[in-house]
Each structure stands twice: as C-alpha cells, then as structure tokens.
Amino acid sequence: MKTGSTSFDEKAMRLMVERHYEDVLAYCRRHAPVSAAEDLTQETFLRFVRRAEAYDERGKPLALLLTIARNACIDAARSAGRAPSFVELDKGLEPSQSDSYAVELESALASLPPDEREALELRFDQGLGVAEAASVMGMSRFAMNRLLKRALAHARSALAPEPKGRLK
C-alpha cells in the first residue's frame, strides 16, 4: 500500500484482509446469491491486490473494498444475465417474540428501493461516512445526503404504527 512514500507491502495487505474480510463477505451476501458470496469476496481482494501498487490510503480502506465488492457483484449479476438484487438471509428461521422489532425493521428495510437500502447499509451498518458511502455508490455527497434522507423517511413511515380507529 502507498502511504506517502511507503510502497505496497505484503504484511499490510494481510492485515487489511484480516480486518475487512467479514465486512466484505457480509456485503456480498446481501448483494449476491449466498452461494456466490465467498467467491465474490475473494474476487474483491484479488482485484485489490492486482491494483495495490496504485492504492493511495485516503479515507477508510473499507470504502474502497466495498466499491470493488459492489462492482464484483454487479459484474457477476451481468454475467448471470440478471439485475443485482438483495438476498434475504435466514428465511427459514422463526423469529422469537423478543425479535419482533428486528423483524419489523428487516421488513421495513426490505420494502425500500435497492438504492435506498444500500445507502443505509453503507452508512449505518458498515459505518462509512457520507462521502465514503457516496464514493462506493458513485454519486456526490449531496446526492448521497438526499438519498439517505429519503431512505430514512421511507423507513420511518414503514415502521410507524397504524393509526387506531381508521379503516383502510
């Protein structure tokens, strides 16, 4: 990796893989079929290694890795002849009563358009800043802020309790 005048070194790469492998895998599991997630995660790190000499550490390395993972998932979807989509996890598990809020939240997130859901995932699940999330999704910070605001409004309305006494 380049940090100023320091050139790429294998130890730094190994540390980056150890630190971010699970995050990249989780992203790939949400954006590709589970059966392809591990392969796409490995592809992400291979793409990074191939271009590591040009890497210049600015911002969080995770933002760059998620950008590469996003492109790998899109490429895999294109080669499979379908549009990329979110994949639901653990459909067969019955939620317990204590998990009711988590189930409601998952349902609310599932109802969002894919770009809004991905923006929330990058910002709040992966912990990226607005600028980094915008970079991953290939948009300006201004556009990301608007997308996040819209996504949060949609999520809030999906989680809002139904008013009592009103018929549908």
From TrEMBL:
NCBIfam families hit by this protein: sigma70-ECF
UniProt-recorded Gene Ontology molecular function terms: DNA binding; sigma factor activity
Family: Belongs to the sigma-70 factor family. ECF subfamily.
Pfam families named in the record: Sigma70_r2, Sigma70_r4_2
Alphabetically ordered keywords of this record: DNA-binding, Sigma factor, Transcription, Transcription regulation
Domain called RNA polymerase sigma-70 region: residue spans: 16-82
Organism ancestry: Bacteria, Bacillati, Actinomycetota, Coriobacteriia, Eggerthellales
InterPro entries linked: RNA_pol_sigma-70-like, RNA_pol_sigma-70_dom, RNA_pol_sigma70_r2, RNA_pol_sigma70_r4_t2, RNA_pol_sigma_r2, RNA_pol_sigma_r3/r4-like, WH-like_DNA-bd_sf
Keyword Coiled coil in record: no
Provenance organism: Slackia piriformis YIT 12062
PANTHER family cross-referenced by the UniProt entry: RNA POLYMERASE ECF-TYPE SIGMA FACTO (PTHR43133), RNA POLYMERASE SIGMA FACTOR HI_1459-RELATED (PTHR43133:SF8)
Statement: the UniProt record of this protein carries the keyword Transcription: yes
Domain named RNA polymerase sigma factor 70 region 4 type: residues: 104-154
UniProt-recorded name of the protein: Sigma-70 family RNA polymerase sigma factor
GO biological process, one term: DNA-templated transcription initiation
Domain of life: Bacteria
